[in-house]
């Protein structure tokens, strides 16, 4: 222990116990994150990053640090908090363990300086790696869920707004956009916060319409921008790389521009005339057909789509659809959501089967 500087002999065991506990804590937190990256997300890259950091931590866990361990004499083993007793979502599990790991690394960074002159710098850099991993994992989860979402609910003014959204989520919906053009910002903010809570309870994405500021204020998963809204680059600068940005498009030029500017998904429409876009001519099924052949990012056919014309839209090449009135005004939002999802899932299955048959003949 020649590197203990001016630490007195009676302080040495305490320093080692602190290092021992936090090395264990950081490794345990990383292992929990690693398991989800590996089995939940099938991300070899992120799982490998966790494993690499765990192994690096192990190299610092020397015999003299381990020898200082005194679990029976540790008063902290009895400390707990009600929030530690339950987790209601994967997001909570991950957030708790990212916090646990980051806090442990900060402790190792500070107390490590007293034990080894290289320890502080090493754990400082690892802490930054964990921050980066957290951002990447959150972005990865959001984008993966976006790709797996084939039905998109865009809300409109309704006395039963929260009940309708929750009913649709109970039917399997995984993507919701809060759209309200006429309310005051205080009402929008309150409504957005409530809908985000409902969405995240069901593991669904919550997107804010138009307003980047409100998206940030309520910690939305992303924002949807119209053609007259702020540029995608400006929204990305404010939102960062881990949130989703969508853009409405009405023709091939707007579609190609949105993709080039970095949109994560686009709306394609309006397919049919709709009061949601009063006065705007329908883009029609031809634009849906164009998107099916040329869009390189997820896209949602939108505009007047309902159970009566859904098959026409799917026949034109759509794989994903966004709806407003078909769910918001439905007497049984859960059932209509399930109907949409069943049709979209069936279409996906048929297309995968056709693709396999086609590839087998090549």
Automatic annotation (TrEMBL):
The keyword Magnesium applies. Residues 1-129 are annotated as: Unknown. HAMAP family: TMP_synthase, TMP_synthase_cyanobact. 2-[(2R,5Z)-2-carboxy-4-methylthiazol-5(2H)-ylidene]ethyl phosphate binds at residues 274-276, 304. Binds 1 Mg(2+) ion per subunit. Pathway: Cofactor biosynthesis; thiamine diphosphate biosynthesis; thiamine phosphate from 4-amino-2-methyl-5-diphosphomethylpyrimidine and 4-methyl-5-(2-phosphoethyl)-thiazole: step 1/1. It comes from Limnofasciculus baicalensis BBK-W-15. Pfam families: ThiD2, TMP-TENI. Its cofactor is Mg(2+). One of its GO terms (molecular function) is thiamine-phosphate diphosphorylase activity. It is an enzyme of class 2 (transferase). CDD domains: TMP_TenI. InterPro entries: Aldolase_TIM, ThiamineP_synth_sf, ThiamineP_synth_TenI, ThiD2, TMP_synthase, TMP_synthase_cyanobac_bac. Mg(2+) binds at residues 210, 229. This is Thiamine-phosphate synthase. The gene is thiE.
């Amino acid at each position: 222990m020649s590197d203990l500087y001016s630490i007195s002999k009676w302080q040495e065991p305490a320093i080692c116990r602190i290092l021992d506990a936090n090395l264990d804590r950081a490794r345990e937190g990383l292992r929990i994150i690693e398991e989800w990256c590996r089995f939940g997300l099938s991300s070899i890259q992120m799982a490998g990053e966790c494993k690499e950091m765990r192994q690096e931590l192990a190299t610092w866990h020397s015999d003299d640090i381990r020898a200082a361990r005194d679990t029976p004499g540790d008063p902290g083993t009895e400390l707990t908090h009600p929030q530690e007793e339950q987790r209601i979502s994967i997001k909570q599990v991950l957030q708790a363990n990212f916090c646990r790991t980051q806090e442990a690394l900060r402790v190792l960074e500070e107390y490590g300086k007293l034990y080894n002159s290289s320890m502080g710098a090493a754990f400082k850099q690892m802490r930054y790696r964990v921050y980066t991993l957290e951002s990447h994992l959150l972005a990865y989860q959001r984008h993966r869920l976006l790709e797996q979402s084939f039905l998109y609910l865009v809300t409109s003014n309704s006395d039963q707004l929260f009940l309708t959204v929750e009913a649709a989520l109970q039917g399997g919906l995984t993507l919701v956009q809060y759209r309200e053009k006429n309310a005051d910002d205080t009402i929008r903010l309150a409504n957005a916060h409530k809908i985000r809570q409902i969405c995240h309870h069901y593991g669904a994405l919550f997107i804010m319409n138009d307003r980047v500021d409100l998206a940030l204020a309520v910690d939305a998963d992303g924002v949807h921008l119209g053609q007259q809204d702020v540029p995608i680059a400006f929204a990305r600068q404010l939102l960062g790389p881990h949130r989703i940005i969508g853009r409405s498009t009405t023709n091939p030029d707007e579609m190609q521009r949105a993709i080039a500017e970095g949109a994560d998904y686009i709306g394609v429409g309006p397919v049919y005339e709709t009061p949601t876009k009063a006065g705007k001519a329908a883009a029609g099924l031809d634009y849906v057909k164009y998107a099916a052949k040329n869009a390189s990012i997820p896209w949602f056919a939108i505009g007047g789509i309902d159970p009566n014309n859904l098959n026409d839209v799917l026949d034109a090449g759509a794989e994903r659809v966004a709806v407003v009135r078909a769910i918001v005004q439905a007497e049984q939002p859960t059932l209509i959501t399930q109907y949409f999802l069943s049709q979209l899932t069936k279409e996906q299955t048929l297309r995968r089967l056709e693709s396999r048959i086609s590839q087998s003949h090549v």
